[in-house]
Amino acid sequence: MSCDPERVTGFVDDALPAGERAELETHLAECPTCREQAEFESGLRSRLRGLAPIEMPPHLTRAVQRRLRPAPRRWLAVALPAAAALVLALLWLRAAPPFVAWELARDHTSCFGKSQLPAKVWGSDPGQIADWFGGDGMQIPVVPDSAGSAALLGARYCPLIDRMVAHLYYSGDDVNLSLFVVPGSVRMGASHKAQAMGQTVHLLRVGGTVVGVVSASEEAVEAVERALTRTVARLDTGR
Fold this sequence. Notes:
By secondary structure, the chain is of the alpha+beta class. It has 3 domains: 5-49, no CATH class; 58-93, no CATH class; 96-237, 3-Layer(aba) Sandwich (Protein Transport Mog1p, Chain A). It is built from 8 helices and 8 strands, in the order ααααααβαβββββββα. It has helices at 5-12, 18-30, 32-49, 58-68, 72-94, 97-112, 126-134, 218-237; strands at residues 121-122, 146-147, 150-159, 164-172, 175-182, 191-196, 199-206, 209-215. Strands 1, 2, 3, 4, 5, 6, 7 and 8 form an 8-stranded antiparallel beta sheet that branches. Strand 3 and strand 4 (164-172) form a beta hairpin. The chain is globular, with a radius of gyration of 22 Å.
């Protein structure tokens, strides 16, 4: 079977029929991308279930009950638009460049904070890395094989809160750098620069694709940005 993120979510929620669940279990054993999505969503649900319950003041409960009894329709007339507004706010937030920059900085810090990089494909050849992602249908732009003193080591898919991104790892001479290919909507122009979690984050559009570059070294980030810009310019001019 092919990858189906919605079915993976249904698997995590225990909402699939027995036959589909068995089929997906077999797929998860063979597909690292879907398995990482399932592990991430399972962990997120566990953390949410582990949150301490919020104790409501008794007077607040009584006040709400009094308002609900005489005019439940009026309460719904207020609650439904409020819920819709919250959903719209979340959709707006997920595409906001500062939020995306923070997510990428968090993932960069998490991956390089491990005792060993969690790469799923190793290699210093950008073409090899592109072919690995291409096998799953993820197209990445032409990327450099080095960023200053940092060389390309490998890559994997990393789960953000609402999407899976291609994460390429560069390291060398005490410089760690991440290059992300971010699918989906990011509400920005040609570029966005930010500082998040002690990291320099540059978001830029490369051939219609949003690329995020993250490092504590601003010099390394700018070196990658220049390399990407030159590559796009050469492709545009055919040179």
